[in-house]
Specification:
Helices cover about 50% and strands about 25% of the residues. It has about 220 residues and is α+β, with helices and mostly antiparallel strands.
């Protein structure tokens, strides 16, 4: 009876020890995961700060070269792609702080959404074809028995191919990612695409501004 109690107590102590140890290991894993995430976020933040500073300097250079900026989208410098600066007196726009375009070279523009191209409702299943491993090995063995190595190759090649349905990775997802496409009278860059992220207001505001430029200054382009 005493030995039963002692053994039961030892087992209980061991179980508690293992549970505490497992919990401590889990807490250590979570701690390391948090540290990795914090480091990743810090790196991204530093990268964004450098990008913002670079864009600010670029904008100052453009202001000095072309004069007063009539319109800026976004209003303040940030680290998100999809930026437009309009210099009405100089009749130029600057896209993403790198592409300078004259008013007369702008043909058209449009906002596109990546969800229109990869729609969750377009294709909910993907067909995937593969060779049955068991069937291939079996046929190869039979082929080798009958006709040697060549028979093994032929036997494996004639193995049954199985087609299965696999869920589309985009199935059931609902997302938007907007681009602004600016069409230009330029053979080297006939279309320039700006990524605007999930901000439809940014993309829409740039589209309206560019369409206003086309209507005001290039009315006879399509006439």
């Amino acid at each position: 009876m005493i030995w039963t109690i002692i053994i039961g107590t030892l087992i209980a102590i061991f179980a508690i020890f293992m549970a505490v140890k497992e919990q401590m290991e889990q807490m250590e894993k979570e701690k390391k995961a948090i540290e990795r995430e914090n480091k990743r976020m810090e790196l991204q933040l530093n990268k964004a700060k450098k990008q913002i500073e670079l864009r600010r300097k670029k904008n100052e250079e453009f202001d000095e070269k072309f004069g007063e900026c009539t319109l800026s989208v976004p209003l303040i410098v940030d680290a998100i792609n999809g930026t437009l600066r309009v210099y009405e007196k100089a009749h130029v726009i600057v896209l993403d702080e790198k592409l300078i375009v004259k008013f007369e070279d702008i043909r058209a523009c449009e906002v596109t959404n990546i969800a229109d191209k990869i729609s969750p409702t377009n294709n909910n299943n993907v067909l995937e074809t593969h060779v049955s491993g068991k069937n291939m090995v079996g046929r190869a063995v039979v082929g080798a028995t009958i006709a040697g190595p060549v028979g093994a190759i032929i036997g494996g090649a004639t193995a049954k191919r199985v087609t299965t349905k696999k869920d589309n990775m985009f199935s059931g997802l609902s997302f938007n990612y907007f681009y602004l496409n600016v069409y230009l009278n330029d053979l080297e860059t006939p279309m320039y695409q700006m990524a605007c992220g999930r901000d439809i207001e940014r993309a829409s505001k740039m589209e309206k501004a560019i369409n206003a430029i086309i209507w005001k200054y290039n009315k006879n382009v399509n006439e």
